[in-house]
Amino acid sequence: MDEIRGDGMAGETAGHGTAGDETAGDGIRGTRAGTAGVPLSVLDLVTVGQGRTASDALRTSVDIARLAERRGFHRFWVAEHHSMPGVASSSPAVILAHLAAHTERIRLGSGGVMLPNHAPLVIAEQFGTLEALAPGRVDLGLGRAPGTDGATAAALRRSDRLNEGADDFPQQLAELIRFLDDDFPDGHPYARIHAVPGPVQATAPGGVQSAHRPPVWLLGSSGFSARLAGTLGLPFAFAHHFSAQNTVPALDLYRNSFRPSAVLDAPYALIGVSALAADDEREARRQVLTGALSMLRLRTGRPGLVPSPEEAAAYAYSPMEQEFVDGWLANVVHGTADEVRTGLDDLAERTGADELMITATAHGGEARLRGYELIADAYGLPSA
Predict the structure, then answer these.
(1) Which residues touch 324 (CB under 8 Å, ≥6 apart)?
(2) 45 closest CA partner among 59, 66, 61, 56
(3) CA atoms 184, 187, 188, 190: torsion sign
(4) What was the pLDDT predicted at 205?
(5) Which residues contact 352 (CB under 8 A, 6 or more apart)?
(6) CA atoms in the 13 A half-sphere facing the CB of 373
(7) pLDDT tens-digit map of 82-127
(8) What distance in Å separates the CA atoms of residue 18 and residue 264, rounded to the nearest whole number?
(9) Burial 41-54 (b: 16+ CB within 10 A, else e)
């Protein structure tokens, strides 16, 4: 069994800089823009609305990534989900390759790849390829949940022992990091196996290899990955957008568990937050209700496409369903641009997050694009 290490960041600059320190060269710490108190980034779930196709959703993702790059958002992540008609992001590496071809500067990454669903070597090869396509701007965020229901997870893993993957997460992580760094010790069964593209190419006769490799982030919605990320000295991303009650405890656990590493000498945590701005408060409420109904259906075993605003408004909510929707929307920052800015600032202050990663769920791409533009305007982000 490999020792878990958090120090494998070949070619990265160690040491901690403040959030927004443009001289920080480790590829982890974000850069503030405009009047934002912390760096702002984007998480896109590639949602598919009723009457739309997956092709439409993927085109919208490109449009949002380009907007995010143009307006000064720091990074753009996509997340692995399976067997959900309303989410077309089952293959993050494929989507990221496509986004890399349509952007130039913004960091791209996974928020996240679900490690138990894949062999570590496969992920190392995929993200080594992405790093070769977009040198110095790829993040590898990893989760330990399946990103789907139990039956689908069994189909993905070809096993009904679903807890095994989650329980083995630290060992899988250690193996993945060794493949990324190409440093299995002599005598290890994998010592002669190399993830390509990767560092081994620099050791071949005449070989030249980029000094960069994707920084590894741990993702979580509870305490397990928070503690592990802290112990390893890795950056941590918390899913506040669907586990808000656990955000502060998880971040506290991460910070209290943190041990300096060659990656970071102080904690760095971002949180995912659901937020949508519109030209008026009523329109914002109308749009975010579509995401709430979509989540209600998912949580009650009826996953489907994201409903239209008209369907969400006309839906006959039972008292229990209304309670769920109200609770869900209480953690979605929505309203006018100024209201959303105030909500995001309050959240950053309350949690102490080093970076906010905004995800906007609405039926159509137009509302999401408009929302990100309005947030960028509210913070005075670059317009060119």
Answers:
(1) 296, 299
(2) 61
(3) positive
(4) 79
(5) 251, 269
(6) 12
(7) 999 999 999 999 999 999 999 999 999 999 999 999 999 999 999 9
(8) 12
(9) bbbbbbbbbbebee
Residues 92 and 119 sit within 8 Å (Cβ to Cβ)? no
DSSP 8-state assignment for residue 17: -
Are 285 and 253 in contact by the 8 Å Cβ rule? The answer is no
The three-state secondary structure class of 42 is strand
* Distant-in-sequence, close-in-space partners of 313: CB < 8 Å, separation ≥ 6: 286, 289
By CB atoms closer than 10 A (0-12, 13-18, 19+), residue 373 is middle
Which tokens belong to 44? 């896109």
CA distance 156 to 147: 11
* pTM, entire model: 0.91
Closest Cα to residue 114, out of 85, 83, 136, 137?
A: 83
SS3 (DSSP) at 114: strand
The total number of residues shown for the chain amounts to 384
State phi, psi for 47 to the nearest 5 degrees: -75, 145
CA within 13 Å, CB half, 127: 30
Structure token digits, residue 237: 């991303």
First-residue to last-residue Cα distance in the chain? 50
Instruction: Dump pLDDT digits (tens) for 122-175.
Output: 999 999 999 999 999 999 999 998 666 778 778 886 566 655 555 789 999 999
